[in-house]
């Protein structure tokens, strides 16, 4: 399977790159994608939620009324969960929401997303480019040349490029990452995926391991 390499004007360069069918041509496994996206989102949670239980409330410990003979329910002190301002029963406690997935499943998830994106014609390969200085306007022109106006796009670089990253940082629908930073969530979230010519083989090599 081959894709034509485009230049920064959105025109074909005449060069092509070969895509591995075992990565870009499999039957998508939606459950694997679901699990990795769930793992990514779980890792973003702070988990700092906390409510006070009965023992943590600062208040009098005096028993409000005698245990028997009143004809109504038994009361302890004012910290009881039945009273306003009392402790909460089984309230949230700080916790870590992260969980583990094996590497083979995470690779399968990425392959599944990429295969679906290729079927949808949402993957492009772009020749290597850089900016002399951070210029958001130049990145907007690049997006427009590729037909991404109003669309979410993900650019995958072979190595970190500060000027390219800074040029895209203020664009809410554009994200720039290196090939080894990609998660299935990034691939799913992007409407259009752009591999720089030097990144495609490195990315494929990562998924073959």
Automatic annotation (TrEMBL):
PANTHER family the record matches: 50S RIBOSOMAL PROTEIN L4, LARGE RIBOSOMAL SUBUNIT PROTEIN UL4M
InterPro entries (alphabetical): Ribosomal_uL4, Ribosomal_uL4-like, Ribosomal_uL4_dom_sf
Keyword match Ribosomal protein: yes
GO BP term (any one): translation
Protein task: One of the primary rRNA binding proteins, this protein initially binds near the 5'-end of the 23S rRNA. It is important during the early stages of 50S assembly. It makes multiple contacts with different domains of the 23S rRNA in the assembled 50S subunit and ribosome. Forms part of the polypeptide exit tunnel.
Domain of life of the native organism: Bacteria
UniProt keyword terms in alphabetical order: Ribonucleoprotein, Ribosomal protein, RNA-binding, rRNA-binding
GO molecular function terms noted in the UniProt entry: rRNA binding; structural constituent of ribosome
Lineage per the UniProt record: Bacteria, Pseudomonadati, Bacteroidota, Flavobacteriia, Flavobacteriales
This protein's record includes keyword Lipoprotein: no
Protein name per the record: Large ribosomal subunit protein uL4
NCBIfam families: rplD_bact
Region described as Disordered: spans on this chain: 45-88
A single GO cellular-component term on record: ribonucleoprotein complex
Family membership noted in the UniProt record: Belongs to the universal ribosomal protein uL4 family.
Pfam families: Ribosomal_L4
Assembly description: Part of the 50S ribosomal subunit.
